[in-house]
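Hypothesis: this fold can be encoded by more than one sequence.
Test: take the structure tokens below, design a sequence, compare later.
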């Protein structure tokens, strides 16, 4: 059975995420940088870790993958964005629905909301947090 390329791309996105270490873990050199997703907007322009529970994974226009941390994504103050060209070697973001994750990147403003765009493998320290 053949799967569409977009499903494969999304399918790889987060395979790496599960295999990497925590970004905001105690003892990590980045632990002091980690903030909750709802505080990310206070750190625009900064490169730092952000944590939150993924409530919805959406594949938007042109294969853009959005990790949403609120029940109403358009009202949410933060999202993680992955463009198809950058996500070819990642995994299935849908597996992260309901999981608390961590990611690191430059927090940018897009249309009045904070976001991190996943572009490099170094950002893919995001992974489910086990408590």
């Amino acid at each position: 059975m053949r799967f569409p390329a977009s499903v494969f791309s999304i399918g790889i996105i987060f395979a790496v995420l599960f295999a990497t270490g925590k970004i905001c873990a105690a003892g990590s050199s980045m632990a002091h940088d980690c903030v909750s997703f709802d505080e990310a907007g206070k750190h625009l322009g900064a490169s730092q870790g952000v944590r939150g529970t993924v409530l919805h994974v959406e594949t938007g226009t042109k294969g853009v993958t959005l990790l949403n941390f609120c029940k109403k994504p358009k009202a949410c103050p933060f999202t993680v964005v992955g463009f198809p060209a950058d996500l070819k070697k990642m995994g299935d973001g849908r597996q992260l629905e309901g999981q608390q994750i961590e990611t690191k990147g430059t927090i940018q403003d897009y249309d009045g909301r904070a976001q991190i765009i996943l572009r490099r493998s170094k950002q893919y320290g995001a992974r489910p947090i086990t408590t």
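The first strand starts at residue 35 and ends at 36. The two ends are 37 Å apart (CA to CA).
Hypothesis status: open.
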